[in-house]
Amino acid sequence: MFDWLPFEWIAASRFLREGRMQTAAIVLGVSIGVGVIVFMSALLTGMQKNFINRVLSAQAHVVLLPSEEIARPLRDADGVAEAAVVQKPYQRLRSIDQWQKIEQQVAAMPQVKVVSPMASGPALAVRGDAVRSINLAGIEPAKYFRIVPLDEKIISGRALLGTEDILIGSELANDLGVKVGDKLRITPSSGEGLALKVGGIFDLGNKGANQRNTFVALHTAQSLLRLTGGASSIDVSVHDVYAAEEVASAIRAVADIGADSWIRTNAQFFAAVNAQILANVAIRFFVGLSAAFGVAAVLVVSVVQKSKEIGILRAMGASRGQIMRVFLVEGAAYGLAGSILGSGLGAAALLVWQQYVRNADGTPLIPIELDPQLFLLAAFIATLTGLAAAVAPALRGARLDPVVAIRG
Amino acid sequence: MPPGLEATEAVLRLEGIRKAYNAGRPNEVEVLHGIDFIMQRGEFCALMGPSGSGKSTLLNLIGLLDRPSAGRLAIGGRDTTGLDDRELTRIRGHQIGFVFQYHHLLPAFTAEENVMMPMLLDRGHPDARMRARAATLLENMQLSDWKDNLATNLSGGQQQRVAVARALAMNPPLLLADEPTGNLDSVAAQVVFDLMRRVNREQGTTVLVVTHNLGLARQCDRIVEIVDGVLTGDERLTLHNEPRGSRISSPLQ
User: Fold this and answer.
1) pLDDT of residue A212
2) B53 is in which domain, residue-wise?
3) Which residues in chain A touch residue B108, judged by CB atoms under 8 angstroms apart?
4) Distance between CA atoms of residues A9 and A20, nearest Å
5) pLDDT, tens digit, for every residue of B81-93?
6) ipTM value for the complex
7) pLDDT tens digits for range A358-388
8) How far is B51 from chain A (nearest CA, A)?
C-alpha cells in the first residue's frame, strides 16, 4: 500500500485512527449537520413538487380570457370628459374574439404543449326539489384531458362526452343523489335548461371542486350558455411550468387578450415557497458553518497534539507542503465521512417520516424522492467544507518551527 | 582553518557561526559566539559541554532546523546560506540523519514504518525497496523480530535503535544525534552507541553525537567541547580501538 499511497494519505489515515475518539466525535457532528441538511432539502423539494403537482393537475398553466370591457365616456377635448362619474362596466359572459385564430397562433408557439378552448359559465343543477349552483364547463375532451387528466380521476362511469352527457363531481352526485346513467336538469342563468345524462363521476381531491365543477361537451355548453360558436376562455399548457409567466406575456404581446399564468394566480404560494427557500438556505448555511468550525477546532487541537511529530517529520525531510496536506486530507476526510454517514441519517429520517406522517387516507403527506444527486452534492459540499475548514490549522501546522516543535 | 582540509573533503564546515535569539530587541541573547568547526568524512565526534552551553542550538543549526544569525554553514561542500525552506528540507532529507533523545518515533506507526518514513517522504521509492531497506536496517539494529510492533510497544533502548535505523534510511553522509543515550540505562546506552559506531566504521557515515556521558565520548575519534557558546576544546583520540575493560570511567556517569 505504501507503493501507491503518498505520505500525506498514509499519515492522515494513521493520525485519524490514532485519535479515534476525536475522529468519531467530529464525524458524528458533521454527519448530524449533513443529515439535517439532506432531510430538510428533500422535504422542501418534495413539498414544492407535491404542491405544484396538486395545483397543476387541476388547472391549466396559462388561461386566456377575453380582454376586459371598459367604459369609454365621451370626451370634449383632451382631458375634459363629459361624464363626471365613470362606473366600471360589468363583465358579461362573452366569447374571446376570433378564438379559433388565437388558438392556432398560440398552439404554434414552441413553448406551448396543448391548447384547449373552453366555454364555461354559471348554471344550476336541478333534481326534484334539490338545486345546486354549478360551474358548467364545455370542453373538447381530446385536448382538455391532456391539460387536466380528468379521465384519470373518474371514480365511476366513463369520461366520454356526447351531446347529452355531463361529468360531475362526487360531492354533487352525493348531494343530488344521482349515479351514472341518471338524468340531471341543467339550467343556465337565462334561457332554457336541458336534461343531461350523468356519464361519469370524478373526484378531484377537493371538496369544493367536487361540488361545483361539471363538464359537458363544448357545443352543449355553447348552446346552454348562449355562446354559440364561442369560447369564454382558452386553457394552455406549456413545456416548462416555471416559464408560464413568460409565455403568458408573450401571448399578451401578440394578441389583444388577457393571459393569466398559474404562477400569477398562485402568487401567495410562490411567496411562501420563496420564504421557505430563503429560510432553508440560511439554516443550511449556518449548519454548514458550525460543522466547519467543529472541524477546524478539532484540527487545531490535533496540530497542537501532533506538534512533536510534525517537528520530527520536518527533521526527517518532510516539506511544509507535505505537513499541510496531511491536515487538509484529514479535514476533507472528516467532511466526506460525515457526509456519507449524514446522508444515511438523513435518508433514514426521511423514510421514518414517510412511514409515520401520513394523510388520513394512508398516503404519505408529502411524497419524497431520494434523489441520488442530493447525496452526491452533499458529499461534495461537505468534503469541500472540511477542506476549507482545515486550511487554517494546516497552515499553522506547516509553519511550526521544527526546533520549537521538537522541544515541545 | 588547518591546512589540507579542503572544502570538498569536509562533510561539514562551519565558519564564524553565530546564533542570537530575539535579534534586534532589547532582550537579545547571543547563544553561539562564532563557531568554526570542520568534520571530515568518516569522523565520529562527540560534542560535550554543560547544560545551556549551546550544544543543542549548534546541532539544530547543523541539522538545518534553524538558521544561524551570522556565519557560513556548508554541508557536503554546499553552502546553505540563503537557501529557501524547500532546499533546506531537501538537504535535510537526503544528507542528514537525526536521532533525538526523547519523542523519537511516530507512535501511530510500526517500527518498520518508522524506518520507511524518510523514504516515503522523499517519494518515488517502490514499496518493495523501502521494505527491503527497512528490513536490512532493523536487522543491523537486531530488531527484525519487532518490526511490526507499534513504536509505543517497544522498550526505550529498542525505540532508540529504531530511531537510529530510521536516521540511516536514506543512507545520509551525516548522522546527528542529540543525547541519544540520555534516557537509557548504561547497558542499553552502550548497545545503541556500539551500533552507531559500527555504522560509522562499515558505511563511513560521519557521526556527530551530543553526549554528557564521558565514558561514551571517550570511545569516539574526537571530542569537541563547547562552553558558553564558544568551542573550548578539540581533542583527537586514538584509543577507540582499545578493549572495553580499559575504558576511562567518568565521575559524570
Assistant:
1) 92
2) 44-241
3) 11, 14-15, 17-18
4) 16
5) 889 989 999 999 9
6) 0.84
7) 777 667 777 777 788 888 988 999 999 999 9
8) 15
A384 burial type by CB count under 10 A (0-12 exposed, 13-18 middle, 19+ buried)? middle
Q: Residue B121 and residue A322: Cβ atoms within 8 Å?
A: yes
- Helix%, strand%, coil% for chain B, nearest 5: 35, 25, 40
What span, in angstroms and rounded, lies between the C-alpha atoms of B66 and A398? Answer: 15
> Would you state the pLDDT for residue A58?
76
Residue B6 lies in a domain: no
**CA–CA min distance B98, chain A (Å):** 7
> Nearest CB to B122: which of A14, A313, A317?
A317
Nearest to A320 among B65, B85, B107 (CB): B85
HSE (CB half, 13 Å, CA atoms) of A371?
Answer: 16
Candidates A15, A318, A406; nearest CB to B121: A318
Decide if B127 is inside a domain. yes
B54 assigned to some structural domain = yes
The one-letter code for the residue type at A239 is H
Is B252 inside any structural domain?
Answer: no
Summarised one tens digit per residue, pLDDT across range A272-325 is: 888 888 988 899 899 999 999 999 999 999 999 899 889 989 988 899 999 999
Kindly list the distances between the CA atom of residue A172 and the CA atoms of A127, A204, A211, A243, in Å, as whole numbers in the listed order: 11, 12, 5, 35
Please state the domain count of chain B.
Answer: 1
Average pLDDT of span A389-400: 94
Cross-chain residue pair B108–A402, CB shorter than 8 Å: no
User: Coil, helix or strand for A351?
Assistant: helix
What local confidence, expressed as pLDDT, does residue B1 receive? Answer: 43
Q: Report whether pLDDT(A327) > 90.
A: yes
Contacts of B110 (CB under 8 A, 6+ apart): B147, B148, B149, B150, B151
B121:A15 CB<8 A: no
CATH code of the domain containing B126: 3.40.50.300
